[in-house]
Each structure stands twice: as structure tokens, then as C-alpha cells.
């Protein structure tokens, strides 16, 4: 999926570069596609949609760090809960 299709607007060079660098650092497969329309002619990058959803829902920079920090926070919150083994929660 292109950034244009995901965002519903042109991403621009700066955001495009940020997304590409993050995908490359995470070893996300990126495909290149040639497009030609009245506004833009050239190559665009195509990313897995599920990766774009994760990338933009957690923040645009330090994607991996933020995901790791979130996991740490969840684990700490779970550890802080005092579970009573005699009760069933649901």
C-alpha cells in the first residue's frame, strides 16, 4: 500500500523518507511502483498495510522503541495487579 493510499493525501518527501528509513531498519519488504498522473510522475514505495497501521498508530519516530516501551508498560501494569488465586475473573 502506498503512503498516498494509506493517508488519503500526498505524504511529501520528508515523511516518505522517514517511513522508508523505518521500514528499512525493521527489514520490512518494500516494493517500488511507477506511477503517472497529472500531479506526479515517478516511483513510489509500497508497504504492507498492517505495518503502516502499526507505524502510524504508535507514532512516526522510534517505532520499534515505542512498541517495546508499550510492552514494558503493559507487563509492569500486569505485575502490579494483585491477583487472588481463589477467584475467577472474567
| Mean pLDDT, all residues | 80
Using the CA coordinates, give the radius of gyration: 19 Å
- Count the helices. How many? 4
Spatial strand sequence of the major β-sheet = 1-2
Largest sheet: 2 strands, antiparallel
- Percent of residues in helices comes to 40-55%
Pattern of helices and strands: HHEEHH
**Kindly, what is the distance between the CA atoms of the first and last residues, rounded to a whole number of angstroms?**
38 Å
Low-confidence stretches: none
Oligomeric nature of the chains: single chain
Overall spatial form: elongated
Percent in strands: 5-15%
**Protein structure class:** alpha+beta
Q: Strand tally, please?
A: 2
Describe this structure in words.
The protein is of the alpha+beta class. The chain contains four helices and two strands, in the order ααββαα.
SSE order and pairing:
Blueprint: H1 3-7, H2 13-25, E1 31-36, E2 41-46, H3 49-58, H4 63-80
Antiparallel strand pairs: 1-2
Summarize the structure.
The protein has 90 residues and is an alpha+beta fold. It has four helices and two strands; from the N terminus they run ααββαα.
Task: Write out key terms for the chains shown.
two-stranded antiparallel ribbon; single chain; 51% helix; alpha+beta; elongated; 2 strands; 90 residues; 4 helices
